[in-house]
């Protein structure tokens, strides 16, 4: 009798699941038919390939790398009922990212909405409008206005580094992020220097940013943390509430400062920051705060990572540091004067190092889009069904030996014209492509290069060992696992001139 009851209970529980599975397969028969034409690992019923990705967060991209190695440039995997198709062919990557059939962010971006809402970065229903409002603050006219602040803050950073003990190894990121934060606050946030130094919770937010990113990535990659009860029991909900609180206090203070200032200021349109533009376009306060933090953190934190990596590359590559320094002296001069965008364009050696950093350490290691309409790729062999999550593995594309000679080595010379001419240009997409590409690519490039010029003109950087031996931490973006550690030594005067702070 007991066995009969157990059997009855088993049927009662499993039958609805089986019926739903059959119904789901019937309803999504077109997706299953098209998915069958894409290579990929065998998938379990209901779970799909989810068990394959039950690993530490830093190992997730290694799983993607393994799949691409085993199945080629097109591979599918199922995360439960979510079909993911990973594409690494440069021609199809460009086609997909610039298609109006693939113009929505993927479901992974939903995990960021707690902190930044459903706007520009996460691709919610308002992203086009909000991006259109914010774009003028990132164009060349605005950046020309902002370059005065970039120069001033970069000079402050160069002074800080020149005053370091030349025998002391330190993580340069912390000094760099202080600089980029001030630049962003005084430009995109629209604040004065004094206001930027007195924003509520700013230091706390900067200190906790990496922990915030880790929390988001852990929830993305650990399915059990997506169960509310487990998320709460593990203490992650408490952490999330704390992060949301300090971000809200910071952005509320910025918003209040700008609302008060706009009542008495008459800045030209080119000088307006994104916060001002959102206010003047009548966005609700909560939306302004979410979008402001989204653009704040993606500007100051990402720029700091890239700039720190450029400095570290130069510390490990003394011959390239000498090339960059000599070029700076030839183009800009030995004095610590204002650097212009025209001068930056002439610094070819710096540009090659900068691009190699972007290749070696992707800003976005992987991006995801949702396919809204069927779209055919791979010369007609593969059709991505509507509802598919498209995965573009930028980190793997930037290290594909088919397009990059010795991809795991650091070689800025790979960006010489003669070494680039036969390479598919779409094998290098550090800022993505299409309507949802990186809004701040020109802003960040100008800021980072000005910062590097000011620093290298004043100090000589040093580090021990080989750059390729440093461990990378690969999650939402790529960074050095143990920091950006180097030494800084004040340079000797050139032709009798000593660089002065200013």
TrEMBL record:
Q: Which Gene3D superfamilies match?
A: Cytochrome P450
Q: Which cofactor does it need?
A: heme
Positions binding heme in this chain are 438
The keyword Metal-binding appears for this protein: yes
InterPro entries for this protein: Cyt_P450, Cyt_P450_E_grp-I, Cyt_P450_sf, Cytochrome_P450_Monoox
Bilayer-spanning residue ranges:
6-24
Q: Does the keyword Hydrolase apply?
A: no
Any one GO MF term held by the record is: monooxygenase activity
Q: Which UniProt keywords apply?
A: Heme, Iron, Membrane, Metal-binding, Monooxygenase, Oxidoreductase, Transmembrane, Transmembrane helix
Lineage: superkingdom: Eukaryota
| Family, as annotated | Belongs to the cytochrome P450 family.
What is this protein called in UniProt? Answer: Cytochrome P450 4c3-like
Say which species the protein is native to: Vanessa tameamea (Kamehameha butterfly)
